[in-house]
Amino acid sequence: MVSVECWVHARRNFIKVARTTNSAFADEITDQIGELFEIEDEIRGRPPDARLSYRRDRSAPIIQKLRLRLQEIYAEILQKGSLGKAINYTLERWNSLTLFVEDGRIDLDTNPVERQFKPIILLRKGVLFIGSEEGGDTWAMMSSVVETCKLNRVDPYRYLVWMIDDLAEARTNYLDEDIDFSRYLPWNAPESCKVKLAPAK
Question: CB-based burial of residue 2 (10 Å sphere; 0-12 exposed, 13-18 middle, 19+ buried)?
Fold first, then answer.
C-alpha cells in the first residue's frame, strides 16, 4: 500500500501563516505550490500516461526548486514558529507529496476522495440504531455503491433501476454461474445511466 499526501493540506498551512504573520516567505511558497495546481488544470481529464509526461516536463522542475527553497528558508528562520512548522510538515511528507510526478493516476490533492466520505459521516448519527448487524452491512455496501457511482459520473438512481431490472431478467434466463457480474460494476453501466456534463462555454 502506498501513502499519498495532499498538497491542499500542505498549502493550507502556508496560507494560514501568510494571513496571520504577513510572511513574504509563506506567500512565496504558496505561489509556487499554486503553479503546480495551474499545471493540473491544464491536464485534468487526460489519460494517466499523458498526465505523467506533462508533469515530468512542467511540474518536476518546480518540485525540485520548491524543495531547495523550503530547505533554504528552514535554515534561516525560527523552526518552532508557525512558518517552521509549515515547512517541516511539508518536508516530512515530501516523498508522499511528490508521488504524483511518478504516477499519472495520482492527483495533487485528496479532496475528491474525502468528499466521498462526507455523506457517510453526516449520516452516522442517523444510522446509529440501524437495527441489526446485517442492516449495518447492507447500509455500508449501498453507501459504497452510491459513492462509487458518483466517482464514475453515474446517476445512482438510474444505475440501481437498470441493475435490478437487468439482473432480474438475467436470472430468469441464465444460471448465476453463467452471468458476468462484472457487468454490474458502476463504471460498466450503460450510457443511459451516465450523468451528462454541461458543455464547456
Answer: exposed
For the chain, counts of helices (H) and of strands (E):
8, 0
CA 132 from chain center: how many Å?
A: 32
Residue-wise burial string across 169-183, b where 16 or more C-beta atoms lie within 10 A, e elsewhere? ebeeeeeeeeeeeee
On whether the pTM is more than 0.85, the answer is no
Are residues 55 and 96 in contact, defined by beta-carbon separation less than 8 angstroms? Answer: no
DSSP 8-state class, residue 199: P
The predicted pLDDT at position 196 comes to 75
* Residue in the structure block whose three cell numbers are 495520482: 106
> Residue 42 in contact with residue 20, Cβ under 8 Å?
no
Distance CA 191, CA 80 (A): 55
Residue 28's nearest CA partner among 2, 80, 66, 78 is: 66
Length of the chain: 201
| Nearest partner of 90 among 52, 36, 133, judged by Cα | 36
User: Residue 97's CB: how many other CB atoms inside 10 A?
Assistant: 23
**Beta partners for residue 154, in sequence order:** 194
pLDDT tens figures, 179-194: 888 889 998 999 999 9
What digits encode the pLDDT tens for the residues 11-47?
999 999 999 998 899 999 999 999 999 999 898 878 8
- For residue 79, what is the enclosing H or E element? none
Amino acid identity, residue 94?
Answer: W
Question: What's the CA gap between 187 and 22, in Å, rounded?
Answer: 47
Dist. CA 113–CA 110, nearest whole Å: 5
